[in-house]
Design brief:
The protein has about 525 residues and is of the alpha/beta class. It is about 25% helix and about 15% strand. The relative contact order is 0.10.
Length: about 525
């Protein structure tokens, strides 16, 4: 029997932007609880909450100062327990976002590591190294967020390593006590009843103890993505993504499994195969996602075919599938551009729910929301300020969820922490609830199709030959076979295959499709699902 998480659909809630229950301009846990009826109405299996722990918010929750606590903006431990109980009463799983590779520089562990001296009890809980003789960083490691991945602290006359902001010091997982403290965080929340975890930057637990320099990406191999951040100009082989990371993933999974029927999956952004992103559920984490689908932006079959060609090399791996989250521009804008056809939103949502794996839906994706445009003075993301105006950072996908027309789109009665997006004014939940042809109505219908089909949830995936820009594949499980067809172009297209003969239409329409014998005609940006007769 398949585990509950295989083929599940999780709804990703970015808590700060979901719903403000107390009028302070910030989304909160009580706000999530207030909208559980809506989440349940989507037909999803559970929710993944962005980090809920106490944080100075240098990186908006991904710099944690107390792993056992709840962020004050979000409420109390009692608010979380009420949310957890209410979700479970509806049959919804609750998955937390855990950031165990680094902490905030305000975490008591780091303060003690800094102030307790080189011989103190937590001296080696973080990655410290002496400066070069001229005072510069110990090696060439670069931060994801710009500049050297080292910060000097005169109290220790040493640098500490930070893969991200300087306020996010790297926890030293090679220290057994530090590692156990991090693992105990999982025990704490599992004991409270959470159903699992999404692990942030799961390839970064270990660093090279010799502090060897990272090699440069050869100039001839550099593409646009490499030039988008200075840190991308080197291969991150020694600061993170070590083969030994695989051992840590297994340790984590076993720790989670000790609490029963739980789920742990990870985010991997670099050197994925090297550090364990594609392992089987019996070797590493239960599942994982990479940034391949999150960074794709050319609408066409190639990005799907290429990713699943990679996955085919790891047949025992169970993938997690995501097109959108709090770190990347929204799906509709990324693939459709600033003037995207609304139909593209339905097309991409249908594709997301059709691919093999466990599915992550980012809040608002079911509404077909485009990326929001913000001015520099409205930005809260440190990455957004780094490369302005050439890149706007991550705030454009983090703006408040649009619930109703009117002031602040129903998110808050106060001034919201990020402005409600003008681009979302006509796309609120209330407006789409009243429209049977809305993206929201389609999203609910296609989720229902997936829930009702073992082939769509658990089946393998066989690609069909199809003319570009048509993407076609068959999901099979035991005696059930579902053909999934997508016209990813702006002109009508036809796909013909003997397997389609005698098929019957299944589920909602995303654009017009006409079945003629063994051929299917697809309108621009249309998706169709057929139950095959053999």
């Amino acid at each position: 029997m398949a585990a509950w998480w295989q083929g599940c659909v999780l709804y990703h809630v970015y808590v700060r932007s979901f719903f403000d229950s107390d009028g302070d301009g910030q989304g909160d846990l009580a706000g999530v609880a207030a909208k559980l009826d809506y989440i349940e109405s989507l037909g999803v299996d559970g929710i993944w909450l962005s980090p809920i722990h106490s944080s100075p918010n240098r990186d908006w929750g991904y710099d944690i100062a107390d792993f056992d606590g709840v962020q004050g903006d979000y409420g109390t431990a009692e608010d979380f327990q009420r949310l957890l109980d209410a979700a479970h009463a509806r049959g919804l799983k609750v998955v937390l976002d855990e950031v165990l590779s680094h902490t905030s520089d305000e975490h008591p562990w780091f303060i003690e590591s800094l102030t307790g001296g080189k011989d103190g009890p937590k001296a080696d809980w973080y990655v410290w190294a002496d400066p070069a003789t001229d005072g510069t960083a110990p090696n060439n490691w670069l931060s994801v967020f710009g500049g050297p991945a080292w910060a000097y602290q005169p109290a220790r006359r040493q640098h500490y390593h930070h893969k991200f902001l300087r306020q996010q010091p790297k926890l030293n997982w090679r220290n057994a006590q530090a590692r156990e403290a991090a693992l105990s965080v999982l025990d704490h929340w599992l004991a409270k009843g959470v159903d699992g975890f999404r692990l942030d930057v799961a390839g970064t637990y270990l660093h090279d103890e010799t502090l060897a320099d990272n090699p440069a990406v050869p100039v001839a191999e550099r593409r646009g993505l490499h030039w988008s951040h200075a840190g991308n100009l080197q291969r991150h082989l020694h600061d993170s993504n070590l083969p030994e990371n695989i051992e840590m993933l297994e340790v984590i999974r076993r720790r989670v499994e000790a609490h029963g029927d739980r789920f742990v999956f990870g985010e991997f952004s670099e050197e994925e195969a090297r550090c364990g992103a594609y392992l089987s559920p019996a070797e590493g984490l239960h599942s994982a996602y990479t940034f391949v689908l999150l960074l794709a932006k050319k609408l066409g079959p190639a990005f799907v075919r290429e990713h699943f060609a990679t996955l085919a090399s790891f047949p025992d791996h169970w993938p997690t599938i995501s097109f959108s989250n709090h770190d990347v521009p929204r799906t509709l804008t990324r693939f459709g551009g600033e003037d995207a056809e609304p139909q593209v939103a339905k097309l991409m949502f249908a594709l997301l729910l059709s691919l093999k794996g466990s599915t992550l839906i980012y809040q608002g994706e079911e509404l077909g929301l485009p990326q929001a445009e913000l001015t520099r003075d409205q930005l809260r993301d440190p990455v957004g300020d780094l490369y302005w105006p050439y890149a706007g950072g991550r705030d454009g996908c983090r703006t408040p969820m649009p619930w109703t027309p009117g002031a602040n789109l129903g998110f808050t009665t106060a001034t919201p922490w990020l402005p409600a997006a003008a681009e979302h004014a006509g796309l609120s939940v209330e407006a789409q609830d009243a429209d049977p042809d809305s993206t929201l109505a389609f999203a609910r219908a296609i989720i229902a199709v997936r829930r009702g089909s073992e082939a769509m949830r658990l089946g393998g995936m066989d690609f069909l030959e199809a003319p570009d820009p048509v993407l076609a594949f068959v999901r099979r499980y035991e005696g059930e076979a579902i053909a999934c067809l997508f016209n990813m172009g702006a002109e009508p297209a036809v796909i013909s295959d003997p397997a389609l003969a005698g098929a019957e239409r299944l589920g909602p329409e995303a654009g017009e499709a006409e079945l003629r014998g063994a051929s299917v005609g697809l309108a621009p940006y249309a998706a169709a699902f057929l139950r095959l007769s053999k």
